[in-house]
Design brief:
The structure is a homodimer. Chain A is mainly alpha-helical. Chain A has one domain: Farnesyl Diphosphate Synthase. Chain A is built from 15 helices and two strands. A two-stranded antiparallel sheet of chain A has the order 1-2. In chain A, helix 8 packs antiparallel against helix 9 and helix 10 packs antiparallel against helix 14. The mean pLDDT of chain A is 94. At the A-B interface, helix 2, helix 4, helix 6, helix 7 and helix 8 of A face helix 2, helix 4, helix 6, helix 7 and helix 8 of B. Chains A, B: Keywords: Coiled coil, Isoprene biosynthesis, Magnesium, Metal-binding, Transferase. Chains A, B: It catalyses: isopentenyl diphosphate + (2E)-geranyl diphosphate = (2E,6E)-farnesyl diphosphate + diphosphate.
Chain lengths: 295, 295
């Protein structure tokens, strides 16, 4: 099977699981649950939940134990998109060709739906951690997710990104934004998956290296695609970074150098995989896909 | 010591602890941390963290074990106030006589500071739960907080409250709002404290009854004070519920009947305390204070 088809199949599996995990739209909370489900079912690559399960499998764990964490990471990713799209932040009306949450449900419900998804992520992880043989393992995995999503991770990166709008920033600051806004969640979810899969110290170290590198490479490729990408494949306008005067890898170090940096990160990521005991074929192909992708 | 002084002393202790638990305002995230600390240090009764520690003590537990959960519940309460005050929700410029978060830091930072506080609450609880002798106890306590704060608790109540603005609603719906928007968090934090304090089933049941009753009574008294309260003592304008055409206990069942209902709830709450083994003197006085309070 072509890798794109493998990825699509895995995304479908995640979507089936998400439907099972989401609250039913009923009773007094019908509207908020509709708003939560609207954004959670809006598609996307489902990369983060896939990475969570694959990290667990790659160290020989039972991926089923990591499912609640995979669900949670997609809920956290989705809440961050809902809040990012709000008028007070990026003010986007469309995402993946669909109206954004606040356009459909109003700003008040969009704020609350985001809050509800973040909170629900922890409810789901906690339910998946209670009454297990090794509760400390699950507590450690949950802490990986929580710290990756917070001020020393995703939110921290998002804040600095917001504050850097229309400003030329240093490469150091751009690295901080990329490492936190994008890579931290990928590192957190893969470390959580690996911990649940009983990774040893060496494996955990190499899962961390792999996820850090593909996270940063993913963001650099995003920046590159905003310049050279095909709008019909991307499903969004290109050139928005230049229009918004945004500092990016290409604007700071050049287009060719950015491609080289992404390739170097992916090469290192694949080297890290050689230290992992079990099935890493998917993760290796995924690393290649991340630099070769067209959308 | 007069009870008000006891309450104030306990609030001061909570504020001292909050300072220790809050992130330092430094580095790239300085602004978001300032925004988080601004609202978290804005005062208030600190009722929820106090209840968490007292619930733990009342069943003979070591309140120190419950401190991270007490901190977390105040962070969750504070994030909900920051988001409630936003222009898209209540659009309030002032809270407790100080400018609201979005007035000082902007709407974008206020949204992110709220998100950050909710996320940080879980980080703090997780750090306080790892490497303990009985991790399942802490997982259970965390789940109490998480479910009380989510769509089947605080957020659920808030959503229905928002949707009921300028509408006459049924007493059943008003009870749903009060029970979820206000009482759920009080129940959740007291149950968490009691679980950490190793409550037996009977104690947990009675802590639940106590917290449910004082939570609902607290909200009914809030409604009453909005009619008969002294603005100088309350620190806010009275009559806003009537001005906003808001359904309240007094508007639905009358002022006297509302007072009677609050008194009945408090009497029952104090009866529940007789089933608790250890020191319940504070909780008993608190129940009286909740109906007698003037602000």
């Amino acid at each position: 099977m072509e890798f794109k088809a493998v990825l699509k199949e895995k995304a479908s599996y995640i979507e089936k699981l998400l439907k099972e995990y989401m609250p039913k739209e009923e009773g007094y909370q019908k509207t908020i649950m509709e708003a939560m489900n609207y954004s959670l079912s809006a598609g996307g690559k489902r990369l983060r939940p896939i990475l969570t399960l694959e990290a667990c499998k790659s160290v020989g764990g039972d991926y089923k134990d990591a499912i609640p964490f995979a669900m949670a990471i997609e809920m956290i990713h989705t809440y961050s998109l809902i809040h990012d799209d709000l008028p007070a932040l990026d003010n986007d009306d469309l995402r993946r060709g669909r109206k954004t949450n606040h356009i459909v449900f109003g700003e008040d419900m969009a704020i609350l739906a985001g809050d509800a998804l973040l909170n629900y992520a922890f409810e789901v992880m906690l339910l998946g951690s209670m009454n297990k043989e090794n509760p400390n393992k699950y507590l450690n995995a949950m802490y990986e997710i929580a710290s990756a999503a917070g001020i020393n991770g995703m939110i921290g990166g998002q804040v600095v990104d917001v504050q850097s709008e229309n400003k030329k920033i240093s490469k150091e600051k751009l690295d901080y934004i990329h490492n936190n806004k994008t890579a931290a969640i990928m590192i957190g979810c893969m470390r959580a998956g690996a911990i649940i899969g009983n990774a040893n110290d060496n494996e955990l170290e190499n899962i961390t290296k792999y996820s850090k590198n593909i996270g940063l490479a993913f963001q650099i490729v995003d920046d590159i695609l905003d310049i050279v990408g095909d709008e019909s494949k991307l499903g969004k306008k290109v050139g928005s970074d230049i229009d918004n005067n945004k500092s990016t890898y290409p604007s700071l170090i050049g287009l060719e150098e950015s491609k080289e940096e992404a390739n170097r990160l992916i090469k290192e990521a694949k080297e890290a995989l050689t230290q992992i005991s079990n099935d890493t074929e998917f993760l290796s192909s995924l690393a290649d896909y991340i630099v070769d992708r067209e959308y």
